[in-house]
Amino acid sequence: AIDVGFKVVDKDLLVSKFKLFPDEELGQGDGEIFAVVWTTTPWTLPANQAVCVHPDLEYVLIQRRHEEVSQRLILAEELWTESMKRYGGTDTCLGTCKGSNLEGLLLQHPFDNRQVPIICGDHVTTEAGTGLVHTAAAHGNDDWLVMKANFPNEKPRILMGGDGKFFNSDLVELEGIRGLDRKEANKVILATMQENGTLIASARLNHSFPHCWRHKTPLMQLATHQWFIGMEVPSLVARKKSDELVESDNVDNLTTKQQAQIWTKDLESELRVTALKAVDVTQFFPSWGHARLEAMIKNRPDWCVSRQRNWGVPMPFFVHKETGEPHPQTVGLLEAACLLVEKTGVEAWFSLDESAFLQANTNVASKAINAEYKKVTYTLDVWFDSGATHYAVLRSHPAFKEEVLSRLTNKKPAADLYLEGSDQHRGWFQSSLLTSCAIYDHAPYKALLTHGFVVDGSGHKMSKSKGNVVAPQKVMDTYGADILRLWAASTDYSGELTISDEILKRVADSYRKIRNTCKFLLANIADFDASKDLLPVEQWLEIDKYALYLTRQLQEEIATKKDERGNDISYYGKYEFHLAVQKLVSFCSDDLGAFYLDILKDRLYTSGENSPARRAAQSALHHITHTFMRLIAPILSFTADEIWQTLEVNTEKSVFEDIWYELPAHGLSTSRIEDWERIVSIRRWAAKEIESSRERKELGSSLQAELDFRVSDEDLSALKSLEDDLRFVMITSAAEVADCGNGGLRILKVHPSDHKKCDRCWHYREDVGSDAEHPSICGRCVSNLFGKGEPRKYA
To answer: Which 3 state secondary structure label does DSSP give 251?
Structure first.
């Protein structure tokens, strides 16, 4: 730690700033006047550009006498006494002034022929030192910010390379510092100041210092040349368009300034503006992603794309060893480097003999100066790597292979969707947007989907130390890949995604419902050949048509629904996968399992094998199976593929190459659909009453029951429309309907049948045993087995 004196250039001006104490003996004092700074990094003094004071602190002018030395020192009043303990000698205060009064005064650098100003900064404290802070923009955050605030156009003095050694030789007093590291440079700097009288005090000091978290070694802050993508720079498309305007017959010879005006005014082509326009036309799922990404683009600085790492994609540039300026033949050298890497791999750049490479790939004019240039060892920011992937992925699509840079074409390479976590608004989403806008003038995506992060069942972040990590591979090994996929799809991804063994068990139950439904469908169309057995909808029973209606509704809600403008507003179209899963599970358990398939079993199992009634049911199941298989394919990929192979739809391609199934028209009127909806509601009510009777041990199965409905006019009309098929819908052996009278309340009486049970269909019928040859079965079973078959119209 050292105390260094910066000599005041204009002593009279300095003295006039202080309110001096009336002392005839001392007067203004005598000797040189020094603004004293305290620093623990002497090696940064060559880069000094100013001395900083706090505008509100009180400063004192001290007369110091020590041995033969007589000098005046500027110190913060609060640190005066402590500082003098380090310096020694006698001291007397000549006067005081506010720090703001000192602003603008010039000081002589301790060992350079430069003059530096006093500036004001709020970061100056009185915790230690002198209250005056040595300021080098190249070596500190506060220094950088205060210099930018006071001198926005002044560059930092960068005198040290990335290897930690001084490279600049324009220090008159320290010519021998070139090539030294900071420890060696400290010795030279201290010796020089000791000799010229500017070193007021020095001491060894143990203090807190920033260290690398990985290597545990001390860090030094150093501003270095970096590579940026400018947010206020016109895009490639804008420049191309500007060139076309300049070269056209309608535009005279424009100056560079006029071209720039075309870029920024007429075309509004700055990268930031272009990116914000692209954000506005992008769809966001959830919608709050728009405001988040927009704010980040509006407020972001230029993009620093260079990284000081030993791995990654190299930046194949050659720059001047001291100024950092690119080689005059950079474009040709870039091409040569690309060809070399293409031929022998990326290591070719890292192991490059730069001298031989430069001599081989530059013209005669440049060969003489090549020794002044060095290879850039930086690598690209990995976000640039991932953000630029659209250039390769989307350009390979046939639609984008030609004229992708033209503003006049509609062939804009853009993915339908980019999908990632919510942290990627500052990462991949943004880097992809900026690189695409710079090249093509538009975003590389039409929509962005943002999902939350996976947490455990208690909502805690997963951590190996906590032992609460649920490994995807373990889930797949235990439950299968489709269970994992179903969990992901059934969770509302707009927030955190919760996973645990209990949740996975519930998901497995849902999957089991879907899979068992698919097994039932496939089993009951196993003997069905659509090429010869498929009946037109007109020949179906009415319940089959209603099931077709329900299937069409399912497909529309999940996959094919459009608004009046033709926009896809289905669950898949809006990426609302959890709602699609809910609908699929509900369709299996309610519409099919608890209704249609439950009722259909009797017809499938008791009707004649090739009867119209059974073929109509199988025709409906055929359409339902094909529709359902395609609807689950995006989520339950393996299950859908199994069904595809079982159905042998097309061995030349997979289900994922197919399109949504084209369902035939159901042919039901709106009023008839409303009747069926009413019937379904009544059926649920009846099922509860039947179950209550079973719990009371009044009957066994529902087929033992006979129902007596007393309902209102609308219910009466709907139920009576089914005629004798009402019993099949209710899965009972008999069902009677009558008007409920003036009360308007639904009444249902459930009582056990007095008839015998048919051994084949399990219905309790009066005609069981009416055929002497078949004494254990009912009349309709005899007809289905040996006669024309029972007539059915509705169910």
So the answer is: coil
Using 50 as the pLDDT threshold, list the residues of the chain that sit under it: 246, 248-267, 403-410
Burial-class residue 744 by CB neighbours within 10 Å (0-12, 13-18, 19+): exposed
If you write DSSP's letter for every residue of 390-407 in order, what string do you get? HHHHTTTSGGGSS-TT-T
Place of tokens 């510092």: 177
Contact 33, 163 (CB under 8 A): no
- Six-digit token pair at 471? 């490994």
CB 510 within 8 A of CB 486: yes
Question: Given phi > 0 = left and psi -120 to 50 = alpha, else beta, which region is 720?
Answer: alpha
Say if residues 454 and 497 touch (Cβ distance below 8 Å).
Answer: yes
CB 94 within 8 A of CB 21: yes
Element (H, E) at 202: strand 199-202
Q: Which H or E element spans position 53?
A: strand 50-53
H or E, element range at 330: helix 330-344
Measured CA to CA in angstroms, residue 2 lies from 141, 274, 350, 638, 754 at distances of 21, 52, 41, 72, 112
Cis peptide before 286 (omega within 30 of 0): yes
Rounded alpha-carbon distances, angstroms, from residue 210 to 218, 219, 341: 6, 6, 38
Cα separations in angstroms, 528 against 297, 773, 785: 59, 31, 19
- pLDDT at residue number 249: 43
Amino acid at 376: V
Neighbours of 681 (CB within 10 A): 12
Residues 6+ positions from 624 with CB-CB distance below 8 Å = 521, 547, 548, 551, 592
Q: Are 457 and 499 in contact (CB under 8 A)?
A: yes
The Cα–Cα gap between 705 and 495 comes to 49
How much is the pLDDT for 257? 44
734 phi and psi, to 5 degrees? -160, 155
Cα separation, 703 vs 752, in Å, equals 9
**Contact residues for 727 (Cβ-Cβ < 8 A; gap 6+):** 707, 733, 734, 735
**Distance from first CA to last CA of the chain, Å, rounded?**
97
Here the tokens at position 265 are 């005014």
Amino acid in the structure at residue 161 = G
Report d(CA 178, CA 375) in Å as an integer: 20
pLDDT at site 403 = 46
Residue 420's DSSP bridge partners are 450
**Cα separation of 356 and 354, whole Å?**
6
Q: Check if the beta carbon of residue 400 is closer than 8 Å to that of residue 390.
A: no
- The answer to whether residues 107 and 166 touch, using CB atoms and an 8 Å cutoff, is no
317 half-sphere exposure, CB direction, 13 A CA radius:
17
pLDDT of residue 250: 44
d(CA 571, CA 557): 6
Q: Looking at residue 411, what is its pLDDT?
A: 58
Distance between CA atoms of residues 707 and 727, nearest Å: 8
Q: What is the pTM of this model?
A: 0.70
* Non-local CB neighbours of 243 within 8 Å, separated by 6+ positions: none
In sequence order, what are the residues at sequence separation of 6 or more whose Cβ sits closer than 8 angstroms to the Cβ of residue 26? 63, 92, 94
- Give, in degrees to the nearest 5, the angle at Cα 599 between 597 and 600: 60
Instruction: Give the pairing type, strands 2-8 and 106-108.
Output: antiparallel
Q: Are 561 and 569 in contact (CB under 8 A)?
A: yes
Residue 263: HSE in the Cβ half-sphere, 13 Å Cα cutoff: 23
Residues in the chain: 795
Residue whose entry in the numeric block shows the structure tokens 């009278």? 741
The predicted pLDDT at position 184 comes to 86
Return the pLDDT at 674: 96
Other C-beta atoms closer than 10 Å to the C-beta of 469 total: 12
